Amino acid sequence: MDEFGLLMQGFAVALQPENLVLMLVGVVLGVLIGVLPGLGGANGIAILLPLTFAMPPVSAVIMLSCIYWGALFGGAITSILFNIPGEPWSVATTFDGYPMAQQGRAGEALTAAFTSSFVGAFVAVVMITFVAPVIAGFALRFGPPEFFAVMFLSFAAFIGMGRGSALKTVMAMMLGFLLAAVGMDAMTGQLRLTFGSTEMIRGFDFLVAVIGLFGISEILMSIEDGLRFRGQKARIDLKVVLRTWRELPRHWAIALRSALIGCWMGITPAGATPASFMSYGVARRISKHRAEFGKGRIEGVIAPETAAHAAGTSALLPMLTLGVPGSPTAAVLLGGLIMWGLQPGPMLFVEQADFVWGLIASMYLGNIAGLLIVLVAVPWFAAILRVPFAVIAAIILVVCAIGAYTVNNAEFDIVLMLAFGVIGYVLKKLDYPLAPLVLALVLGDRTEEAFRQSLLISEGDLTVFFHNWLSGSIMAAGIVLAAWPLLSALRLRLARPAVA
Amino acid sequence: MSKLVSRRSLALGLGGGVSMAALGGRGASAAGWEPTRPVQLIVPAGTGGGADQMARAIQGIVSKHNLLRQPIVVVNKAGGAGAEGFLEAKGARRNPHVLIITLSNLFTTPMATGVPFSWRDLTPIRMMALDEFVLWVNAESPWKTVGEFVEAAKGSRLRMGGTGSKQEDQIITAAITRATGAPFNYVPFRGGGEVAVQLVGRHIDSTVNNPIEAVTHWRAGALRPLCVFDSQRLAGTEKMTETMAWRDIPTAKESGLDVEYLMLRGIMGAPGITPAQLDFHADLLGKVRETPEWRELMAQGAFNTTTMTGDAFATWLAREEERHRALMQEAGFLAGQS
Known about the structure:
The structure holds 2 protein chains of 2 kinds. Chain A is mostly helical. Helices cover 73% and strands 1% of the residues of chain A. In chain A, helix 2 (17-35) packs parallel to helix 4. Chain A has a two-stranded antiparallel sheet with strand order 1-2. The radius of gyration of chain B is 21 Å and the shape is globular. Chain A: The chain crosses the membrane at residues 20-49, 61-82, 118-140, 147-164, 170-191, 203-223, 322-343, 355-381, 387-405, 469-487.
């Protein structure tokens, strides 16, 4: 139990009064940052990074990582209340979280989201504490073919597990890939689909698209419904937290499974976004109440939130042990490590044990502090919905515009956001699912890169994806999932003549 | 409108200068100009990369040592391999509150993509340092010298990983091929940290990472440096592994490989700023270079600490631009060439 002793030492560092204060400041700032779409955790930390330059490294990283936890918690708030995911991994939370809010169960959804976030993060931290070196070695096995296999599995899971028409899912996904292709092609260094416009060089940022597709189109839908507002039943009542807590233990299996999916995706390092989608898909597939998903099942909130936080937390592990960030926020923290004179990588655990274990201890404490803060605030968050929609719609529109602008400090993005709002509205009316589009837009670049890197390495040989058991088995699972709708259709067709 | 702004900023600048003098002076520039608004430092690359780290270090040093009355704001404009950031700086004509940190994409991006900008569209302020490149292989590989490595590369196309496409890493790779005749299979990745890990995991055979991107894996015994692409050896004499210091890595030339490449880490201003404004920024950045934090950063990344301002810097830029054009032309990387 060598780790245990080191962890206790870490707690001693993290529990120093000034570090505790920084922890609370960090969590509160993080929640605010997470609530504002556009100003995600990565941006928030980047802005505050220079302020920490004068602090001791442990204090600095404690504050910044607490901003990270806070932002992770905060991302769920707007997803549930307004159907506007503030972060890529909150998209899956909107599927059931927003319907719950519309039914007046916003407090319940928020409590479930926060609690399962905490559970996910906690499982991941325990794992980091005790099996870090083993896992660090595993991440090294992931080259481009393995990475592509994981991405392929995420997309396949969506086709096989999505609701509605598989064909529409695929079409929405292809539209997402097309949008992701705009801008610089990282493989050849050439500009693609920019039509000579300097504004298009940047490509389509995920956040701008998502704010438009989800947020703006939702406002358009509500306006069509005559500004009728559906969340008024929400009361300011702290008891909702306790009531939800009584119900949560029943879903332990989903939470555990999602936490494991999350840890695995965080380490590989595919990241929190595919983790949340995949775990939502799996939860829906396995559930007995499959048809009710997307209409306000609490499991639909628990699964993605647990997985996203488990992934977000374990994404810090490859950063610490290998120097490879598992998420954009981790990338900024990585820059911070170097500025504080620490060298992330395999030597960090050996040479800076105080720092590493202080950080790990602060992961435990920061998450507990974060949970308490956001839970106390649940009734107030839920009460936002009592404001008349005519008022709140205008505020949402302004916040969305600010968010879209903040992503790249570009006015053009506000126009893009509005355009995406209209596209989102049309797609919703035609019953095309938006989530596959968003998934392809977020992961399209990385997936394409991994695919082409693999083929460069193998000099054009497609069997590279089956060159070892790891990528081979993931690919096989992906192919089965992608073909699932076809297989079940085939089974039905084969079964029917037998019946007749 | 612009006249109005400049008159107001002049007045504020003078006011600032007077009050500074009254306080005993804290290094207000002799010409009397100083920033009157927050200074925007554009990073034409993503968060977490080498340029971004340096920009944020400058920001932190300036605020910690109170070198400037106005804050520095770091803004990432990474789109189109940095084209977005450069176009923004180019468009900020006569605005002294815009700075941009440059790396080799100042030369390579316009050449490879045809996006219209060059260093001549900006005002060169100061070269802060030059970044080194080292040839790395996996420590378990059989290659101990550049000679053995090149021999192996001639036998079978080795996989060379690097950051980005038609940028510095691929240019060096092409230069090695030209010098030795050994073909490489170049595989582009997103960033240096990712490249280093791919090499540790043996998904690729070699890289030309910057020292700071690979140092931790070297110290952990996972990577082996073969040579540095500079005319002289690196400065660090402190042992990084049990047997080697930065200084013990031979230069490429010593090893019989005639390839030299250094990457600019410099600061440029918007076009058309006044000499007083240029002097102020050059002076400020000179002070940054003298702080212990900066020296620590330089030592960590084994940077070449050459600095230049004014005409010398402009001459250097013109020479490097020509060199890049020649290198990229030979490799077939120019826009419209492939």
